[in-house]
Amino acid sequence: MTQRTDVLGWELERDGRVAVVREDGHVESEDADFADFLRQRLAEPITVHRRGPGRVVPESSEGAILLRPGDGRYVAARVRALAGFSREVKILRIVWDQ
Predict the structure, then answer these.
(1) Distances (CA, A) of 83 to 1, 41, 65, 87, 98
(2) CA 49 – CA 31 distance, rounded (Å)
(3) Residue 33's pLDDT is what?
(4) Which of 15, 17, 16, 19 minimizes the C-alpha distance to 42?
(5) Which of 23, 52, 21 has the alpha carbon at shortest distance from 39?
(6) pLDDT score of 56
(7) Of 3, 17, 33, 72, whose Cβ has the fewest other Cβ atoms within 10 Å?
(8) 60, 47 contact by CB (below 8 A)
(9) What is the dihedral of CA 30, 33, 35, 37, to 10 degrees?
(10) CA–CA separation, 6 vs 42, rounded Å?
(11) Which residues, 6 or more positions from 69, have their beta carbon under 8 angstroms from its beta carbon?
């Protein structure tokens, strides 16, 4: 029996341009500039705090972890940070690949 594997992705929008970022870090978009922008952002480490990803705040740095590309939860944290803090990217919906 073959086990089916679903891959989670986020459909993102920026200035009317759309792309899908999969949980494995793969970026798909018809807009090469937006895809390049996302690939650059997905190469940056991010610090995650108990209250969510973002900048280091001295009072809340306890328990913070630094995630890098390749870490299990990195892509989800990076997408959330792009959509939450910068406001330049919007999450339109969750998509599933099979």
Answers:
(1) 39, 12, 20, 5, 25
(2) 32
(3) 97
(4) 19
(5) 21
(6) 46
(7) 3
(8) no
(9) -160
(10) 21
(11) 25, 42, 43, 45
The answer to whether 12 touches 38, Cβ cutoff 8 Å, is yes
> What tokens appear for 15 in the block?
């200035």
Cross-strand bridge partners of residue 52: 49
The owner of tokens 């940070």 is 81
Q: Which residues of the chain have pLDDT under 70?
A: 1-4, 50-62, 86, 98
From residue 63, alpha-carbon distances to 50, 52, 56, 57 in Å are 7, 11, 11, 12
State how far the Cα of 64 lies from the Cα of 26, in Å rounded to an integer: 26
Q: Which residues of 13-37 are buried (b: 16+ CB within 10 A; e: fewer)?
A: ebeebebbbbbeeebebeeeebbeb
